Amino acid sequence: MPSHLSIDEVARRTGLTAHTLRYYERIGLIAPVGRAEGGRRRYAAADLAWIDFLLRLRTTRMPISQMQTFATLRATGDSTVPDRRRMLETHLQEVLAEMEAMQLSVQALEEKIGYYRAVERE
């Protein structure tokens, strides 16, 4: 990977739009990104790794407000590691509970589909 990427390159790699990347920076999810001459954003590897983690949080449906809290704690430094760990543990439990509920729903759908197939065969 090149040492610094433009906003368009990061958008292509992450699937986010340039607008979303600027929004994430504006609301504090992404720390202010380094700038090249002319003021163009230049994302470092560490920025990309953080964005990848934010995408994981988003995939697990973590609300932006919680992501902002996590980002603020992260920016504060290592003294907040216990708080960040607790946040992630709590969120993980919520994700696991949602996955269990989804699995029960999948089973109910499969049973209903099986019932309808049996009715159609009769």
TrEMBL record:
The keyword Transcription applies. This is HTH-type transcriptional regulator AdhR. GO terms for molecular function: DNA binding; DNA-binding transcription factor activity. Residues 4-73 form the HTH merR-type domain. Pfam families: MerR, MerR-DNA-bind. Gene3D superfamilies: 1.10.1660.10. Keywords: DNA-binding, Transcription, Transcription regulation. InterPro entries: DNA-bd_dom_put_sf, MerR-type_HTH_dom, MerR_fam, Tscrpt_reg_MerR_DNA-bd. The keyword Hydrolase does not apply.
